[in-house]
Specification:
By secondary structure, the protein is mainly beta. The chain is built from two helices and 33 strands. The protein starts with a helix and ends with a helix.
C-alpha cells in the first residue's frame, strides 16, 4: 500500500510539474495563433526590472525564438561572412550551448525591412527545423537537440525581390511549408523525421506572400488556412487538397490568420487594405456565401505586417503605423481604437488575459483583452524590436535588434532535473 501511495504521489508531482508549463514550439506558439495558456505572465519590466537575463545574439535576424523545456532555439545571419546560423541556448541562463552554421551562401536580394534570417524555427522536443534561402533553392534543415544535422531537403526554388520567409509549421508527423512566390508556387508537406515529401499542392496565381498556415479544426475536420496568391484558402493538412477558397481580397499578404468561435479572420495587405471574417465550413469557391463580414479600408485601419490576435469575443490588431483596434468577432464592429507606437512590425501575443503589442522602438504595450481600452503598462527596452515575442512557463522572450531578453522570474531546476543531478552526483561519488 505504501508503494502504491508513493507511486501515486510521484505521478501527481510529475503532472503538476509539467501541466502548467507550456512550450512555444513554432511561429506564434503552440497553436500558431500567438496565444499562451500560461496565466502567470509578467506585465511590467524595464532594463532594470524583471529581467531574468539578457544576452547578445551574434549577427542579425528577425526570426522569433522558440522554446521547449530548458532549450531555446533562434536563427541569425552573419552578413559579412554570409553565414546563416542556428543557436541553441540554455533557457535558465541564456548561455549559448551550441551554434551551427546551417548555410554559407551569397546573400539574396531582399526588402530593407526583411532579414536573411526571418523564418522562425519549429521544434517538437526532439528535433528542430529551420529554413533558409540558398538562392535559388528553398532549403529545409533538421537538427537534433545536440546540434547534429539529421537531414537537409530542398522542396523547390523560390523567387521574390523582397527576400525569403517561410517558417515550418508542425502537423502530426509532418511540417508544412508555404512556397508562394513570383514563379512556380507551391505548398508542401515533409516527413519530420526523414524530410521525405508527403504531398505537394500547386498555387496557381504565382504571387509572393509570406503567410504561414494556421491549423484549425472546424466543420468536423482539420484544416490549414492561409492568405496569399490572390486568395484566402483552406486545405486538408493530411493530403494538401483544397477545401474552400475566397477570391482575394487583395494581392499580397504578410500577416497570419487567427481563428475564434468558428470564424477565421484576416487583415491585409498590399496594394489594398482589408479586414475580413470567413466561416470555414464551406466547400469550393465560397466568396459569395461564407464571408461573414468584410471592410475595405485604408492603411490606418488594417495591418499589413503584424498579425492579429483573438481573445474571448474579439479580434485585435495593430496597424503598421501604430493604431490599435478591437473588433467584435461576429459583426466586425470597431469597439475601440487607440494609438500605440509609431510603427509596428512584430505580431502581438497574449497570456493570462493580457495582450502584448511590441513596437519597432522596443516598447511593449500591455492591454486588457476587452471591449474597453485599458493600458496596463508600457515597457521600454534599450533597443528596437522587429521579432514577435514568445511566452513559456511564466516568462516572455523578446528578441531585439541585438539581444535576446528573458523577462520574468528566473527558473529553478525542476524536481526531475534536481533528481537527475543528484543521481549523477551519487554515481560520481561511487566511482571515486
Amino acid at each position: 500500500m505504501r508503494l502504491k501511495n508513493f507511486i501515486a504521489c510521484a505521478i501527481i508531482l510529475f503532472l503538476c510539474e509539467f501541466s502548467w508549463a507550456e512550450n512555444w514550439p513554432q511561429w506564434r506558439g503552440p497553436r500558431g495563433d500567438g496565444i499562451s495558456s500560461d496565466m502567470n505572465v509578467p506585465v511590467r519590466w524595464s532594463e532594470k526590472e524583471s529581467i531574468s537575463w539578457k544576452i547578445p545574439i551574434p549577427g542579425k535576424g528577425l526570426s522569433s525564438p522558440v522554446v521547449w523545456g530548458d532549450r531555446i532555439f533562434i536563427t541569425t545571419c552573419l552578413e559579412k561572412e554570409q553565414k546563416r546560423l542556428l543557436l541553441c541556448l540554455d533557457r535558465r541562463t541564456g548561455k549559448i550551448l551550441w551554434q551551427r552554421t546551417v548555410l554559407t551562401a551569397p546573400l539574396e536580394p531582399k526588402h530593407p525591412l526583411n532579414s536573411y534570417a526571418s523564418s522562425t524555427p519549429a521544434t517538437d522536443g526532439q528535433y528542430v527545423w529551420v529554413t533558409f534561402l540558398n538562392l535559388p533553392k528553398f532549403e529545409v534543415y533538421c537538427y537534433d537537440f545536440e546540434g547534429n544535422q539529421i537531414w537537409q531537403r530542398s522542396p523547390g526554388e523560390f523567387y521574390s525581390k523582397h527576400g525569403f520567409c517561410s517558417p515550418p509549421i508542425l502537423y502530426k508527423d509532418t511540417i508544412i511549408l508555404n512556397g508562394d512566390q513570383d514563379a512556380e508556387a507551391y505548398l508542401v508537406s515533409l516527413d519530420k523525421r526523414t524530410g521525405a515529401e508527403r504531398w505537394r499542392t500547386d498555387r496557381p496565381n504565382r504571387v509572393r506572400s509570406y503567410c504561414p498556415p494556421l491549423i484549425i479544426e472546424s466543420a468536423g475536420r482539420k484544416q490549414f488556412i492561409l492568405t496569399g496568391s490572390l486568395c484566402t484558402a483552406s486545405y486538408d493538412p493530411d493530403t494538401g487538397k483544397q477545401i474552400w477558397i475566397v477570391d482575394g481580397p487583395t494581392e499580397q499578404y504578410v500577416a497570419s490568420m487567427v481563428f475564434l468561435h468558428d470564424i477565421v479572420f484576416l487583415t491585409s495587405g498590399f496594394p489594398e487594405y482589408h479586414v475580413m471574417a470567413i466561416r470555414p465550413d464551406g466547400h469550393g469557391n465560397v466568396t459569395k456565401t461564407h464571408v461573414l463580414w468584410h471592410e475595405h479600408c485604408d492603411a490606418s485601419k488594417a495591418s499589413y505586417v503584424p498579425s492579429p490576435i483573438a481573445h474571448e469575443k474579439y479580434f485585435f490588431l495593430v496597424t503598421d503605423t501604430g493604431f490599435g483596434y478591437c473588433l467584435d468577432a461576429k459583426t466586425g464592429k470597431r469597439l475601440w481604437q487607440h494609438r500605440l507606437g509609431d510603427h509596428h512590425s512584430a505580431s502581438p501575443v497574449s497570456g493570462g488575459g493580457w495582450l502584448y503589442f511590441p513596437d519597432d522602438d522596443g516598447t511593449t504595450y500591455v492591454i486588457k483583452g476587452t471591449d474597453k481600452f485599458e493600458l496596463v503598462s508600457r515597457n521600454k527596452l534599450a533597443e528596437g524590436c522587429r521579432a514577435s515575442p514568445a511566452i513559456s512557463d511564466g516568462q516572455i522572450f523578446i528578441r531585439t535588434l541585438g539581444h535576446l531578453y528573458c523577462i520574468g522570474e528566473p527558473k529553478k531546476p525542476t524536481a526531475s532535473e534536481a533528481n537527475a543531478r543528484e543521481s549523477s552526483n551519487g554515481a560520481t561519488q561511487k566511482l571515486k
